[in-house]
C-alpha cells in the first residue's frame, strides 16, 4: 500500500463527498449518513457501479475513510492450482483469485455490491461463494454455483459492519474449504475504522493430505484425516513459512498495527496470540464489541477477529495458534519484525535477544 495510492484514494473520496453534498443539499454528508437512518438497509448507495480493488494476503486494500455508500463490483475467479504447501511439497489448492486465502474485500456499511464469480475453464469441480457478510440464502451460495468455464452473479447490500469470512460452499464443503477456498470481507462502519499505521491480512487453515493418484509427488485432500480432524498442517496464509524469513511482517517502533485475522478451518478453532505483545483492542469475533488488554483471542472456524496493538519495543514477535503443537509442529507460526530504538522504560536486559 503506497502513500501515493492512499493520497489518490483520499482525493477521490473527498471529491465524492463534495459532489454528493453539492448535488443534494438536504442529504447528510458521508460522515454521518446514518444519522437519520434507522437501518443500514436504507442507506442509499450513490453513483455508477465501480470495480473494487482487492488484495492478496498479507496486504489489505486502503481504508474506506469517510466516503458515502457506493455501488461496487467485485470480480472473483475460482481456480484449482498446484502450489507449495510446505518446504518443497506440492499440493492441489482450490482458490479464489489464485491465492490462499482469497482476495481481501473491503467495503462500507450500506454499499451495494455486485459479486461476479467466474469458475476457470480448466476447473474440475463446480464452485460457489458463501459470504458471511451477506443477508440472504446461503450467503450467496444458492445463486453462485458455477460449472467450469461458467460465471454467476448476485447483488447484496452490506448491512452489518464487521469482519467476515467468505468460503466456497459447494459439496463436499469441507473438501472445498480444506483445499483453501476461503477469504475475508471487511464491512467498515460509516465513517470508517480509526486510522492505524499498518494493516495486515492473515488467515489460518487446517490441511489434510495424501499422495495424489494422478501425479507423482503431488499431494491432495485427505477426507479421512479431515473427518478425524487430524491435520498434517495448520497454516497461516496457506503455506508453511508464509510469514517467516523474507515474508516476515515488518513495522517500526511506535507504530500502531491492525491485524485482520480469519480462520477458514474447516475444523479447528484458533487461539490466536502474538508472543511478546498484548492486544490493546480486540474486536471480539470481528463484530462491534471492542475489548482491551487481551493476550490470546479465540477465532472459531468460519470466524474472524480484528486485533490492534502498538509496537513499543524493537525485536521479533511471533504469531501463533497457542495450541502450540500446531505452531511448532504443524506450521502455524509467523513473525512480525519491529525495528527502531530500544525502549528501556518498557523492556530492558543485559542480555541480547537470541538471533533467529
Ligand atoms: Cu469450491
What's the layout of helices and strands?
Elements lengths: L2 H21 L22 E6 L18 E17 L2 E8 L8 E4 L3 E8 L10 E2 L9 H4 L6 E7 L4 E6 L5 H6 L3 E7 L9 E10 L1 E3 L6 E4 L1 H5 L5 E4 L12 E4 L3 E10 L4 E6 L3 E5 L6 E5 L1 E4 L3 E8 L4 E7 L2 H7 L2 E7 L17
Parallel strand pairs: 1-2, 2-5, 3-12, 4-9, 10-15, 14-22
Antiparallel strand pairs: 2-3, 5-7, 6-8, 8-9, 10-13, 11-12, 15-20, 16-19, 16-21, 17-18, 17-20, 21-22
The protein binds copper (II) ion (CU).
Copper (II) ion (CU) binds next to loops.
Which features does this protein show?
356 residues; mainly beta; seven-stranded mixed sheet; six-stranded mixed sheet; 5 helices; binds copper (II) ion
In short:
Helix content is 12%, strand content 40%. The chain is mainly β and 356 residues long. It is globular and about 65 Å long.
Q: Which sheet architecture does the biggest sheet show?
A: 7 strands, mixed
Give the CA-based shape.
globular
Using only C-alpha atoms, the radius of gyration works out to 21 Å
Bound compounds, each kind once, are: copper (II) ion
Task: Give the fraction of residues assigned to helices.
Answer: 10-25%
Number of strands: 22
Overview of this structure, please?
By secondary structure, this protein is mostly beta strands. Helices cover 12% and strands 40% of the residues. It has five helices and 22 strands. Strands 1, 2, 3, 5, 7, 11 and 12 form a seven-stranded mixed β-sheet that branches. Strands 13-10-15-20-17-18 form a six-stranded mixed β-sheet. It has a five-stranded mixed β-sheet with strand order 14-22-21-16-19, covered by helices on one side. β17 and β18 form a beta hairpin. It is globular, with a radius of gyration of 21 Å. Copper (II) ion binds next to loops. Copper (II) ion (CU) binds next to loops.
Amino acid at each position: 500500500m503506497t502513500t501515493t495510492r492512499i493520497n489518490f484514494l483520499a482525493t477521490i473520496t473527498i471529491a465524492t463527498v463534495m459532489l454528493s453534498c453539492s448535488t443534494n443539499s438536504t442529504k447528510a454528508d458521508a460522515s454521518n449518513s446514518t444519522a437519520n437512518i434507522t437501518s443500514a438497509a436504507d442507506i442509499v448507495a450513490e453513483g455508477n457501479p465501480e470495480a473494487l480493488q482487492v488484495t492478496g494476503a498479507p496486504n489489505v486494500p486502503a481504508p474506506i475513510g469517510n466516503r458515502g455508500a457506493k455501488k461496487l463490483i467485485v470480480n472473483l475467479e475460482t481456480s484449482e492450482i498446484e502450489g507449495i504447501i510446505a518446504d518443497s511439497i506440492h499440493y492441489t489448492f482450490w482458490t479464489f483469485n489464485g491465492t490462499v486465502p482469497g482476495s481481501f474485500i473491503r467495503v462500507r456499511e450500506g454499499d451495494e455490491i455486485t459479486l461476479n464469480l467466474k469458475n476457470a475453464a480448466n476447473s474440475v469441480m463446480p464452485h460457489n461463494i458463501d459470504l458471511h457478510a451477506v443477508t440472504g440464502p446461503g450467503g450467496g451460495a444458492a445463486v453462485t454455483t458455477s460449472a467450469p468455464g461458467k460465471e454467476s452473479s448476485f447483488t447484496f447490500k452490506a448491512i452489518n459492519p464487521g469482519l467476515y469470512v467468505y468460503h466456497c460452499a459447494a459439496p463436499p464443503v469441507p473438501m472445498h474449504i480444506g483445499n483453501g477456498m476461503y477469504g475475508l470481507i471487511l464491512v467498515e462502519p460509516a465513517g470508517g475504522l480509526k486510522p492505524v499505521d499498518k494493516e495486515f491480512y492473515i488467515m489460518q487453515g487446517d490441511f489434510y493430505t495424501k499422495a495424489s493418484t494422478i501425479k507423482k509427488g503431488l499431494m491432495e485432500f485427505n477426507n479421512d484425516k479431515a473427518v478425524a480432524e487430524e491435520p498434517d498442517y495448520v497454516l497461516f496464509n496457506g503455506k508453511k513459512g508464509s510469514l517467516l524469513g523474507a515474508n516476515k511482517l515488518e513495522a517500526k517502533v511506535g507504530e500502531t498495527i491492525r491485524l485482520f485475522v480469519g480462520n477458514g478451518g474447516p475444523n479447528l478453532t484458533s487461539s490466536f496470540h502474538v508472543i511478546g505483545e498484548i492486544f490493546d483492542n480486540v474486536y471480539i469475533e470481528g463484530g462491534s464489541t471492542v475489548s482491551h488488554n487481551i493476550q490470546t483471542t479465540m477465532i472459531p472456524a468460519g470466524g474472524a477477529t480484528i486485533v490492534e496493538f502498538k509496537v513499543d519495543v524493537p525485536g521479533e514477535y511471533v504469531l501463533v495458534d497457542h495450541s502450540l503443537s500446531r505452531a511448532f509442529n504443524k506450521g502455524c507460526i509467523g513473525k512480525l519484525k519491529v525495528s527502531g530504538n530500544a525502549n528501556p522504560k518498557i523492556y530492558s536486559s543485559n542480555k541480547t535477544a537470541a538471533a533467529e
